[in-house]
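To whoever is covering the structure queue this week,

Two jobs came back overnight. Logging them here so there's a record in the thread.

Job A:
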Amino acid sequence: MKKKELLLTAAILLAAVLLRIGIRLTSPKNIASIQITVDGTVLGTWPLDKDCTIPIGNTNVCEIRDGKAHMLSADCPDQICIHQGYIDEKGGMITCLPNRVVIQAFGNTADTIDGIS
């Protein structure tokens, strides 16, 4: 290879590496989160990496702590939603049937492995 061809090849490789680094730095991070729906309507989505307490209407309260979510309180008679425990980035669902509340966890899709990998 001539000197010009070698320099051109090196420049193309350097540009490809810099482009890959730039894409990785600017792409949004997929953070594990929960989505709360009430009677089929999405109330909102909250990341699991920030601790908070979420009032759900006047009936339920969801708590996110240490990357896990659970139903903190509910006014339903059987309290099954509270006893369902914690959900996290691995997925899961908490359901309060009397109050029509569903909390669904979604994992970090950047770290998941699909069937092709």
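Job B:
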Amino acid sequence: MQNRRAFLALIGAASAAFAAPAWAFEFQPYDPAVVKKAIASGGSVIVHVRASWCIQCHAQGAVLDSLKNDPAYNGIRFFAVDYDKQKDVVAKLDCPRATLIAYKGGKEVKRMSWQTSRTAVLAVLKAAM
């Protein structure tokens, strides 16, 4: 019985240690209707146009991943465009891969392509806030 309690306590502690904070953001797949509604609401929206094989996209993604648990970005909705599978969306957005686009107040407020520095990525996020 004591071993069972110790095991359950360990499982509970491990679950708490690995649980993501409530403010962690996640990228949602780009769905035109959902994104249009999010932008029209006037809220803060970030769109990341990326390809799985793109080095710059991965570098931008690493910066974004490092910010996922920062409560400063709690109010922003994040969407990912698959550059290879969503060519119609890429054409409509008129952008290359490795592009971050910020929306606020129902309109685009900043766009950045190819840059991979933390400073450049933060500038796009801050524009949406």
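Note for Job B: Confidence is low (pLDDT under 50) at residues 6-21.

Please reply-all if you pick these up so we don't duplicate work.
Q.
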